[in-house]
Amino acid sequence: MSAKSSWGRSKQVALPVARLSYPHLVEPKAFESNSTPKYGAELIFPPNETGAVQQLLGAICQEAASKVWDTFPPNGRNPICSGANRPGKPEYEGRVYINAKAKETRRPILIGPNKESIDPSAFYGGCYVRAVVHAFAYTKPTPGVTFELKVVQFVKDGEPLGGDVEEDGVNGIDLLTELNDGSNNPANYATQPAFGAPQPAVQPAPQPAVQPAPQSAFGAPQAATQAPADPFGSPDEGRPF
Known about the structure:
The protein is mostly beta strands. Helix content is 8%, strand content 25%.
């Protein structure tokens, strides 16, 4: 299958409120041996918003992919992940999450609740944030789509991950304010094809119960059951940034 271009990027959109996990927002980190250091974090979305979040994420993935292929390759990697890939972690159970990264030369902008400057130490695994991302489609070394992290906004404190986890009524769609061009409204994508059910991704090591602070590095993956949907695979390998 020939590609129209070697890469494609969607418009940037502001996502609903999510729980921050495994943040590397202060210093870039090499997630694999001999790989280029990157900034990054996982964003876990509330279970009551799975449909709307998946629609929005799928739409921007489709927008980026359509600039590269007429039809997404069967072996392409899907960046929309299922919480089923995190067994034993209640903060992921029944949720959709993504892993968004940025090149070491493109550190994400970090802002406070009112878009003010903020101490980077305010961001830790377990707090609630909003993020602005691009979807980015690529052809090498293997085809796929990933998310590029542009802005992270601190919303509120949460229980640090690693201890007991409980819901506190955060509703991302209601709390979401326009950080960008207004394209974050899922209704704008009602007629566009989504990427399908979320897929497993490379699994990080368990998160220790600590006070708000950057979490441990990603560890070895564990086996996970893949959702029976389109054949998009793990999104966390071979990314261009």
